[in-house]
Description:
Distance between the termini: 26 Å
Strand content: 35-45%
Number of domains: 1
Helix content: 10-25%
Structural class: alpha+beta
Strand order of the largest sheet: 1-2-3-7-6-5-4-10
Amino acid sequence: MLITVNRIKSDDDTTVSTLSVDGRFVCFGLEDEFRVDKVVEETRIPAGRYRVGLRTVGGFDARYRTKFPDFHRGMLHILDVPGFEHILIHIGNTDEDTAGCLLVGTGAVTRPGDMSLQGSGDAYKLLYPMVVDAAQAGQLEIEVVDSDR
């Protein structure tokens, strides 16, 4: 199974993307900005293809087990990104809600200087059940494409 993140718009703080699963649009994404030289917790991951697994430790996992007890089995964790670790897919609305992770939302504002997501919880509840079995089985990948540059 493949999640495709197509980065469509970026500014000095934020990147907005579309997320598809096996070619079908699911939601929007939001990350930090592009940087040539990485700044910890302020830089989006490099374009490329990565494995996605489940992270079952840490604060996010504990909070999401409480928030989503009916379906949560671990955080969607983007693996083996050179120079990055603990890159998760989670809920949030602005670049202030991410430290290099990928946020999801049902809607997106793409005004430079004011980019954000809406409906983040709803998007997470849509995306997560679609892909969690594949992540748990080691059969989920994510491809990140820079169409914004």
